[in-house]
Design goal:
The protein has six helices and four strands, in the order ααααββαβαβ. The protein has 170 residues and is an alpha/beta fold. It folds into two domains: 5-79, D-Maltodextrin-Binding Protein, domain 2, CATH 3.40.190.10; 101-169, Periplasmic binding protein-like II (D-Maltodextrin-Binding Protein, domain 2), CATH 3.40.190.10. The protein starts with a helix and ends with a strand. Pfam families: Porphobil_deam. It is an enzyme of class 2 (transferase). Residues 3-169 form the Porphobilinogen deaminase N-terminal domain.
Length: 170
């Protein structure tokens, strides 16, 4: 089964909660997790805004739901676009995890410790704006995309000096 560890963890948590709340769903084989690779997962070389925005992480999953290939879809709310496709609803949300960001660097303990010109990797416009507002001497690589493991590998390879990730996903 291929899929980002974070997406799979969310799917498993959803499955476990469904199984705990309904005895029929707890039976062997009652719930199957289907991994769907989305356009947002496949195209990592361009900023999301250039290729269609946040909906690229939900499009194929929503299509599978609408086509009846799956019965429910699990999304990270950060990936859900403002307007959802017709024939879909957002009936529930799991409790929100920690909302803080984690600073990760191989050479510094904080953004303040980074030398001028250091490149920070993020695909988040919010994080970019916050970083540059507080630390205008830093630079931001705004096409720093991929799952957590991909971004940590890029950091380890020296593509950037630091990154910020959602604490809940690390």
């Amino acid at each position: 089964m291929f899929g980002s560890p974070l997406a799979l963890a969310q799917a498993h948590e959803t499955r476990d909660k469904l199984m705990a709340s309904n005895a029929e769903l707890a039976e062997d084989g009652a719930i199957q997790i289907v991994t769907i690779k989305t356009t947002g997962d496949k195209i990592l070389s361009q900023p999301l805004a250039d290729i269609g925005g946040k909906g690229l992480f939900t499009k194929e999953i929503d299509e599978a739901l609408i086509n009846g290939d799956i019965d429910i879809a699990v999304h990270s709310m950060k990936d859900v676009p403002t307007y959802i496709p017709e024939m879909t609803i957002l009936p529930c949300n799991l409790p929100r995890e920690d909302v803080r960001d984690a600073f990760i660097s191989m050479s510094a303990a904080s953004l303040a410790d980074l030398p001028a010109g250091s490149i920070i990797g993020t695909a988040s416009l919010r994080r970019k704006s916050q970083i540059l507002h507080r630390y205008p001497s830093l630079s931001v690589e705004e096409n720093f995309r991929g799952n957590v493991q991909t971004r940590l590998r890029k950091l380890n390879e020296g593509v950037v000096k630091a990154t910020l990730l959602a604490l809940a996903g690390t």
